[in-house]
Amino acid sequence: MKIKITTILLAIFYCFGSLFAQSQDPGQWIGYWKGTINAGNMQIGLTFHVSQEEGQLTSTLDVPLQGLKEYKVESTVVEGQTLTWTLGFGATFRGVLKDIKQLDGIWKQNGQEIPCVFYQSLFDRKPQTPILPYPYEFKLVDFSHPSGKLKLSGTLTYPKSPENKADWMGENLIQAAAGGLMAIPPKPVEGDETIAPFPIFPAAPTLVKINIDTAGIHHQFPVVLLLSGSGPQDRDESLGAHKPFAVWAHALTQSGFAVLRVDDRGVGKSIGDPKFLANTTTESYVSDAMAAIDYLGSLPMIDTTRVYVIGHSEGAAVALMLSKKRRLSGIVSLAGATSTGIETSVYQIQNGWKQNGYDSFTCHHLADAQRKLISLAIEMGNAKNGENPESTIPSDQDKQAFAQAFTKWVKSQDNNLKKAYKVWQSDNTKIAKAYSEKSVETYFAKSYLPLGYNPWTRFFFQYNPATDFLQQKDCDILMIQGGLDMQVNPVPTRNLVKQMEAEGVGITYAEFPNLNHMMQHAISGNVREYFDIEETLAVEVYIKTCSWLLDRARMR
Q1: pTM score
Q2: At the topology level of CATH, where does 4-121 sit?
Q3: What's the CATH number of domain 137-339+464-544, 3.40.50.720, 3.30.70.100, 1.10.443.10, 3.40.50.1820?
Q4: CA 127 to chain centre
Q5: pLDDT (tens digit, 9 = 90+) per residue, 517-541?
Q6: Which residues, other chains included, contact 272 with Cβ-Cβ below 8 Å and sequence gap of 6+?
Q7: 525 contacts: CB under 8 Å, gap ≥ 6
């Protein structure tokens, strides 16, 4: 599917030039400013690196998704607490320093205005990210998708020898985790908006591809396949300076497991036919995971009778569908959704409304409006399915039809919903005008229709993972949930666990009250905290997961 905003944004990544800016207080701007731009169903991560040369600020731009590194920005202007980056092709970002490490602003380009937030970090990596030399083997590997239209690329790690295979349990496991792999952060004090920093290590060198030498390998290791969350993800599931899957691989390999992590299709070095990739859904990733397991089965150091999958967020759904096609020894669901995509979306937007000051009455009744908007988008998207990709861009006629259907629905609802909708309608009036839309309803059509037209979001909204969880009678499951998860609702997860137990599913459930969706210790759980928190992976999650995996690996 072609996404107009994505096409516009990609143009900026070819520009470069010199940047000089005068700052009244340059020190507060120095460091890495990380944020994302929402482009259709994609999130494009950007990192501006601000440094000082001869009393003036200079900046460079990194876009990992596009392989862009250290491109110089044309100009930066600092006026009081406002910073403006200007790039080529008319692209600018102008942001106001909301607090010491947060820039809130607008990305403007070719008439498009996209709200986005950048968060500051003094370093371009987080302390838990592993660095060379590793106490285990690591290889960069490639393998083919069975369709022949995709090559997948990833990193394989495994213990150097049987002697390196750990047998960590209880206190030994805790000591190993706290004694160098990662440290347990202090519990945040209520009202304290900071997370205690970790010691900083030098950046890890770039890995070089090495052919696997199978000579002398006589020991087979249980293996863990890591499956990432939604959106285009590289093999490390990078989020700003965080590299969660690199940390997971480091921890699991030292516990005696081989670990494979792979760039998502169309990301990094996993390249393929654009038309093939355009129809990707969550279900499509199952075939990628199957190709990964088939590849692992060809390696002499892998014990194919002990294959485990750790899926984060969307990756948990992929793991559930995968288990129907490949026999797995166990699944670890990290913050995996247990409701339909529509309900997950409602939960997420309700959290946003609450942050914007909406009361419980308004949030409750607006939830039905959100469900209706998505349902209309899916209905129209299903009608468009199979047409030319260009037709997935909403026409004026499509927008009018959508707006009329939604307006008619609102008029048919009770007074409580109408009262709540007036609040939402009023708050979106200025945004609709900024996008030159005739009404709030046509603005909603412009925002929601691409979700119904896009294969991935259309599948996501309609898929119910609870059904697949209940069918896992032959595969043990460890479900881990953060109590501060603002992206996946913990309440239906708790209810589903009780149902799974009643129906004989081998389920182990662990909920950690102070963890967010990324398995970090958090204050509020808001997405904006992910980037600023120094911790990448909470040690208690690592200990719980490794202990559970080791118990099952020994029994097979």
Answers
A1: 0.74
A2: Lipocalin (2.40.128)
A3: 3.40.50.1820
A4: 20
A5: 999 999 999 887 888 788 999 999 9
A6: 145, 149, 150, 151, 265, 266
A7: 482, 484, 485, 486, 516, 517
